[in-house]
Amino acid sequence: MGTKGKGAKTYEFYEELPMLRVTPDAEIPYIYKRLDVELNKPIEERKYQIRIPVPMQGGVRKSLGVVDRESAIKKAEEIVIDIKVAMRSGGTVVKFPVQELADRFCKFKKSLVRGSWEGKDKKGKRSITKERYTLIESKIRNYVVKFLGANTDVKDVSLKRWTSWERWRKENNVRKDMGTPTAITIQNEMGMIRELWRWGIEEGYIPFTPKLPFQGINLIPDDKFRRDTWESNEWKSFARKVRDWLNTTASGDQDYVWDAFVSYQMLFFLANSGMRVGELSKVKNKDIRFFTNEKAIHYKSLCALVQVDPSTKTGAREVNAMGGEFAKRVKDKSKFKRLDDFLFCHLDGSQFTTKQFNKWFKKMIDFTDENNRWGKKFVPYSLRHFYATTRLQNGTSMIALCNNMGVTEPYLRKHYSHFLTRLATDDLMKMNNEIGLGGRMIPDGEDFYIPDDQ
Length: 454
Fold this sequence. Notes:
Layout: E1 2-4, E2 11-16, E3 30-34, E4 49-54, E5 58-63, H1 69-88, H2 98-110, H3 120-123, H4 130-148, H5 165-171, H6 183-202, H7 232-248, H8 254-271, H9 277-280, E6 288-292, E7 302-308, E8 317-321, H10 324-333, H11 354-368, H12 370-374, H13 381-393, H14 398-405, H15 409-415, H16 417-423, H17 425-428
Antiparallel strand pairs: 1-2, 2-3, 3-4, 4-5, 6-7, 7-8
């Protein structure tokens, strides 16, 4: 062990380790202690540093975190092994910041974004919407980069590091107004992080590991993760109160009054059709046909057949909807009657977007105090759940409901199993009187006493 360099660049306890060359033609690695760090400690108690030259990649320079020579050499050997493994798999050994990984992954995901009116049949099954990309990018920026640190080398991130992510995530929620993130939100973000890490390994930015973050955690949503919705008596109360809300909007300017009117009609049409907000916002006049089902026994009001655009989440389908009068009101009052005009539009004819409806929905929920009244948390998707449960309660077959909502039967069984069980009450309570439950009632106090003559 000796000294190398002069002045501020002087290294003490300098020692070359020729046996740890990463390749035969590589320069010799060396360990040392710096004079310009840990100034409050004597040189003997300062931590060892290492420099490992790597051909064509510069090399690795880092602290070994130990003060004695034997431990330093042992850790150096481990690092060299990792470098050799990374080189054999085509990976890089130079520092690769978390921010750089995030930027490159987002660039990759952005390449999969399809146009506003493109479907997966044109852009590919892996394609995503612009809104989905925006969500992914913000999640990575707020809850991955900030958690790991923008300048942290991804190769130094251990799987153990992720064990504290969920607690950190709940304590550092960017959307404070949304409260603590739900279990399904946490679960979805874990899945996104796992995808990011797998992609980093495949691209050679992260050393190969047989496990991924959150290994062993089931990231498939189960039945307990479902959005709140209304019971029938709760909806009746909400419908009365939200009518009062609409009356309060009459004193606003023209744009405000019109948008309130449109959002109110959208609310009830969604509850009567089961469509997603994003699907309804893309409906044009040419996509809807109104009719009255004269053969219907219970429902003779105006209905509608709606053609869902192929660019939406589950692609094109035809929706058979009740509550056609809510869409017809907008169509009759709107100045935009051409076939290619949006049905639910603003006064200038522009599309009433999902984001805009969400804001109006929150105004209605806040006015009626829905969340506090029922101890639930209502979101626009609650309307779709309300439609599904109402249809099930009124005897709609699962096949017909699945086709109308654009979901599979297993999905319907998973997310509405609690309602399916409730609807089966009559069947589950059938009993043959000749068989009965058997036995006899034992009086209180004799529960554990069985006479000998029994």
